[in-house]
Amino acid sequence: MKLFLQLDLQFFAGEKTEKATPKKRQDARKKGQVVKSQDVTAAVLLLILFLFLYVWAPFMLEGLFSFFHQFIEKNILIESITEETVMEIYAQTLTEMASILLPFLLIAVVTGIGANYFQFGLLFTTETLKFDLKKWIR
C-alpha cells in the first residue's frame, strides 16, 4: 500500500516555460527591470573601501589630528563670539572635514556605480521612479 502521491511540482511553480523574446527583454530593460544582485555590489564596495582605508587611513588620521590641534589652538584665542566668528569657524570646519572625508566618499560612489555597471551595463531610466497608484490601492 502506497501512502504518498507523486506529483510533478512544476505544475504549481507558476514559472514560464518559454524564454522571453528579445523584444520583451529589451522592453523590460527600458523599464529598468534588469537582473541585479545587491550582494555583489555590497561585496565589491566593502572590498574596495577596506583596501582604500588600509592604504589611506594613516593620512586621514594624521589630517584629523592636525585639524583638532589647529582647531583648539586657533579658537582658544577668540575673545568674543559673534555671528561672523561662528560662521568662519563653521566654514573652516566644513572645509577641513571635506578634505579628509571626500576621497573616501568619492571612492564609494565610483565603486558603487562601477559595480552596477559591470552587472548590467549602462542603464539610466526614470521608469522605476514613477508614482503608481495601482501599487498602493487594492
Tell me what you see in this structure.
By secondary structure, the protein is mostly helical. It has three helices and no strands. The model has no long low-confidence stretch (mean pLDDT 82).
Count of strand segments: 0
Order of helices and strands: HHH
Structural class by secondary-structure content:
mainly alpha
Q: Biggest sheet: strands, sense, closure?
A: none
Total helices: the number is 3
* Percentage of residues assigned to helices: 55-70%
- Mean pLDDT across the residues is 82
Q: Which features would summarize this protein structure in a list?
A:
138 residues; 0% strand; mainly alpha; 3 helices
SSE topology sketch:
Blueprint: H1 22-30, H2 38-75, H3 83-120
Helix pairs in contact: 2-3
What's the quick description here?
The chain is mainly α. The protein has helices spanning about 20-30, 40-75, 85-120.
